[in-house]
Design goal:
InterPro entries: C1GALT1/C1GALT1_chp1, Fringe-like_glycosylTrfase. It is a single-pass type II membrane protein. The protein is of the alpha+beta class and 504 residues long. The protein contains 17 helices and 20 strands. The chain is flat, with a radius of gyration of 33 Å.
């Protein structure tokens, strides 16, 4: 065969060889088909590589799971499924120890309530029992005092007697035992309370708070199981629909400690009056060990506060206060709660220092709210028209605020800072007509020039003081006697509510 013929045959064989190689790549799934029409529409290029990657990830996950089982004794911070229970985690959103428990069904009866009252203030328990506690199942509620007595439908148990008798070697000769004996001798028909003073029962409260929680835990646990426990005062109002959605995402068997943070001796703990909320897992850690619990009660003889003593022993079990739900707990009555604009979407769970009449009024105000209670809900119930412009009232000053005036100053924008830097004080120029001075105060608030995010203003005619605040104080039932004129920037609150609280 001549040379051109050989070249032709060689070229044909080379082309056929390349076609065979490419075809093999196609069938092996490692290359594109030369003709896209030959490629199956359901087969993506490099399909086998993707499948191999998925298989590798699955195997890795299995190995990781097996490793976590083998090394189950590793430090908690190395386990992804364990919530870090360290002080530095405070303020974070509560984590889910077990994602399978997210959005578990949680009812109000899954939350046990332990209430603390006193013989000398025994009339106060009627406020709770006639409002938010009236429809509770009896086996979900325990009430304790420093002396046993009965109110219609309920026995109020003595929280101190069992411990004073069983641990008499520690309590028998104590000052607290002498106060307790004194209360047992009080006349049944007289309430020995003086407004503004601490009675003997209050002095026993340091012991009574942990002891009532201990007795309540064992008493109610015998009747049924609970997921959560709340320990409160007799003058604390609770709105359970506010807290249930948050708790439903958490594992009650884990160790959780919630409340409004306060501090003493460099320790942050939950303020007892606004409520202490513990998971069943945390309660078991506190009171499941009799020796440990008794040591806590004995330590109460020297403790400064009962809630501090409780928290100190929770800390010993590595259970630290989680502040992620702190905005739901309030140590003040409704009238004195300070609401910042950023709190518009914060559900209200607890309100402290509520007398029985105030509890009934509040209960009536929110009687139709079977969902989380927000600031906007309260403003709507009170009435928008009264909030925008009201006389002899203040929505920016607390009832006790008596700020010094600055008569004689001529500037319409001269500023003074009140205590806490919460309120900015501006003196309205006297040359402006008296009729327009309140409007000027309102416009200064609207402008935000003096107080950023101003939400409420108060004008006092006598001194021409314009008080601008980024916090709202409702002061319900607390009129002022200085002819003050006040208002809330409803449009600002409404805009923030609709923008930040879309699901409410």
């Amino acid at each position: 065969m001549n040379r051109p013929g050989l070249r032709f045959v060689f070229l044909c064989m080379l082309i056929i060889g390349w076609l065979i190689v490419l075809k093999l790549y196609q069938f092996n799934g490692r290359g594109y088909a030369i003709n896209k029409d030959l490629q199956s529409p359901n087969d993506a290029p490099h399909a086998s590589a993707e499948e191999a990657t998925k298989a590798l990830m699955q195997e890795t996950a299995k190995l990781s799971h097996a490793s976590s089982v083998v090394h189950s004794k590793s430090p908690p911070q190395e386990e992804a499924s364990v919530v870090p229970e360290r002080p530095e985690s405070q303020g974070d959103k509560p984590s889910q120890e077990n994602p399978d428990l997210a959005h578990q069904e949680l009812t109000v009866d899954d939350i046990a309530v332990i209430v603390r009252t006193g013989w000398q203030v025994r009339d106060r328990i009627n406020g709770s029992l006639s409002t938010y506690l009236k429809d509770r199942s009896p086996n979900t509620l325990a009430i304790f005092a420093d002396r046993e007595f009965v109110v219609p439908g309920y026995t109020i148990h003595d929280a101190l007697k069992p411990f004073f008798e069983r641990l008499s070697q520690h309590f028998g000769q104590s000052t607290q035992k002498k106060l307790y004996d004194k209360i047992q001798e009080l006349d049944d028909g007289v309430l020995k309370t003086v407004p503004g003073e601490h009675n003997d029962g209050w002095k026993l409260d340091i012991l009574k708070q942990p002891m009532s929680a201990d007795l309540g835990y064992h008493m109610l646990s015998q009747k049924r199981s609970f997921k959560w426990w709340v320990i409160i005062d007799d003058d604390t109002y609770l709105h359970f629909p506010s807290i249930i959605p948050a708790l439903a995402e958490l594992d009650p068997a884990a160790k959780h400690f919630f409340g409004m943070p306060t501090g003493f001796d460099k320790v942050t703990y939950a303020q007892g009056g606004s409520g202490i909320l513990l998971s069943d897992g945390a309660m078991e850690q506190l009171f499941g060990d009799r020796e440990f619990a008794d040591a806590m009660h004995i330590k109460g003889l020297e403790a400064v506060y009962g809630d501090y003593n409780l928290a100190a022993h929770l800390y010993e079990r590595s259970i630290f206060l989680d502040q992620s739900l702190a905005f739901m707990f309030h140590e003040h009555p409704l009238a004195d709660i300070k609401w910042a604009i950023r709190d518009t979407c914060a559900p209200l769970f607890s309100v402290h220092h509520m007398q029985p009449s105030a509890m009934r009024s509040f209960s009536e105000l929110i009687r139709f709210h079977d969902r989380p209670l927000l600031l906007w809900d309260l403003l709507n119930e009170i009435g928008i028209t009264d909030l925008a412009y009201k006389t002899n009232h203040s929505y920016s000053l607390a009832e006790t605020d008596l700020l010094p005036s600055a008569l004689g100053k001529m500037s319409s924008k001269e500023m003074e800072q009140s205590k806490g830097n919460r309120v900015n004080v501006v003196i309205i120029d006297h040359r402006h007509h008296a009729e327009f001075q309140p409007k000027m105060c309102q416009r200064l608030c609207q402008s935000g020039q003096i107080k950023a995010q101003c939400a409420a203003w108060t004008f006092i005619p006598e001194t021409r003081e314009c008080h601008l605040s980024d916090e709202i104080i409702l002061n319900v039932g607390q009129p002022r006697n200085d002819d003050s004129i006040t208002g809330i920037l409803i449009s600002v609150v409404a805009e923030h509510h609709h923008r930040k609280c879309p699901d409410s």
